[in-house]
Each structure stands twice: as C-alpha cells, then as structure tokens.
Amino acid sequence: KRIIHLNTIDSTNTMAKKIAAEDGEEGTIVIAEEQTEGRGRLGRKWVSPKGTGIWMSLILKPSIEPTEAAKITQIAAAAVALAIRKVTGCEAGIKWPNDIILERKKVCGILTEMSAELNCVNYVIVGIGINVNGDMEAFPEDIKKTATSVKASAGKTVSRKAIVLYILREFERLYLDFIQSKSLQKSVEICKKYSVTLGNPVKIINRDRQIVAEAVDLTEEGELVIRNQKGELEKIISGEVSVRG
Ligand code: BTN
C-alpha cells in the first residue's frame, strides 16, 4: 500500500480527498509533519505544528451505504485508543463519537469525510490528529484547558512511528472484520470498554435542539443510547451533533 509522507501540506484530509477522487487505491495513507490548514469537526481549525503530532488520513473505498460512514469513525477511535494504550501504558479513553481522552483532556480528534452519490459511497477519508509530543506551554490559551499531549501523560517523549504502526495494524484488523462480517461488534466492544461517556451526563447539541441526558449504552451499530429527562431512551447518531460532558 502507498504511504505518502509529506513535510508540509494544507490538510492531509483535503489531499487524501483529491487522491481518492483520482482513483487513489483503498489503503493509501497521507501523513504530514505539519498542516497549515488542519481542519477539525464542525468547521473548526485543527492546530498541527511541525513534528509534534500525527496528522494522517486514510483513504477507504468500502461498499457500504452513506449512512454507515459514521461506523468507520468508531473503528478508528477503537484503533487509536488501543494504540496509545499499547505504546504508552496510559489509560486512553474514548469520548463518543470521535475524541480520544487522556486524563480528562482531549489528545486526539477524528474527522471522517465522505463522497457519495445515489446511495453509493465513492470514498471515505478518515482523518486522525494526535497531539503526541506537543509542548503544552506552546498551546493557545483556550485550547490548553481542554487539550493535552501523549507526552504530558506518559511523562516522556513518545515515538510517533510506534503509535502510527499500532493504529494501522489495529485499524486494518477491525476494518476488515467489519467489512467481512458486516458487523461493527468488535469495535463497539472496545469503544464500550474504554468509553469515558457511558454512565455520565452529556449535553447533546445540534442545530435545532439541546438535550441534557445520561449516556447509557452503545448500540451494535455504534450509536449512543441516552436516557432523556423524561426517562425515555433515545438513539443518537453522531452526524452533526456535538457532545459535551
Ligand atoms: C476534531 O476533533 O475536530 C477532528 C480533528 C481531526 C484532525 C485531523 S489531522 C489529520 C486530518 N487532516 C485534517 O485537516 N484534519 C484531520
């Protein structure tokens, strides 16, 4: 498989989209030392300084329905949590649907983007951003309160290569299992085991409503089950929501 390693790029997700649209093969990886216009969810910016993190995008071409793309985010979250745990021994947690947490702070975000037409997926891009060896002093004030680095938790510089290797290994295993068995079960098990969301109150925010509720479970499809204030159970699909603890 092709790994494209760049020194600097606007965004590995943007680059991966271009490659995928021009017949880029499934399994192609774009990874950069620095992003000048790293993108986060909900139109946010993703700070991606040189040499300190893992800024990477995977190109996938699964035969799934567009509504299933969010499942790939769950596979990636499981793979990243496992990788950070294996390499550092730190207790990485998963904040549904797409953040990896160390000591209550965000260390990794996942941005899954897709191109589809007529109920067919052309490609899925899984963008993974991990703050590995970033110096927290250098972080902008507003991010400092909620973000951390792997290094800050591990107490020492951590090999980005080792983490990338583990992510790719675990992602491939879980992704192939999902494609072959058509079940997300293996990834959901891991997401449940390391969830920092389940059992806790959450605020679900989307365009037209805000719900305060308790996160109670993940379904087999990777959706969040909440108990709302009337005591009713509701399923939340990740799409456009923002979840706050
Ligand atoms: C989020 O939590 O908002 C998602 C952040 C995703 C960042 C990664 S870094 C590699 C890839 N390229 C981008 O421009 N964004 C993703």
Describe this protein's structure.
With 245 residues, this protein is of the alpha+beta class. The protein has helices at 12-21, 69-88, 141-144, 150-154, 160-181, 185-193; strands at residues 3-9, 29-35, 53-60, 93-95, 99-102, 105-117, 120-131, 201-205, 210-218, 224-227, 233-236, 242-244. The strands form 2 sheets. Strands 1-2-3-7-6-5-4 form a 7-stranded mixed β-sheet, with helices on both faces. α2 runs antiparallel to α5 (160-181) and α2 (69-88) crosses α6. The longest helix has 22 residues, at 160-181. The mean pLDDT is 93. The protein folds into 2 domains: 3-193, 2-Layer Sandwich (BirA Bifunctional Protein, domain 2); 201-244, SH3 type barrels (Roll), CATH 2.30.30. The protein binds biotin. Biotin is lined by residues 11-13, 35, 38-41, 44, 46, 48, 55-57, 99, 109-111, 127-129.
What is the secondary structure topology, with strand pairs?
Layout: E1 3-9, H1 12-21, E2 29-35, E3 53-60, H2 69-88, E4 93-95, E5 99-102, E6 105-117, E7 120-131, H3 141-144, H4 150-154, H5 160-181, H6 185-193, E8 201-205, E9 210-218, E10 224-227, E11 233-236, E12 242-244
Parallel strand pairs: 1-2
Antiparallel strand pairs: 2-3, 3-7, 4-5, 5-6, 6-7, 8-9, 8-12, 9-10, 10-11
Biotin binds next to α1, β3, β6 and β7.
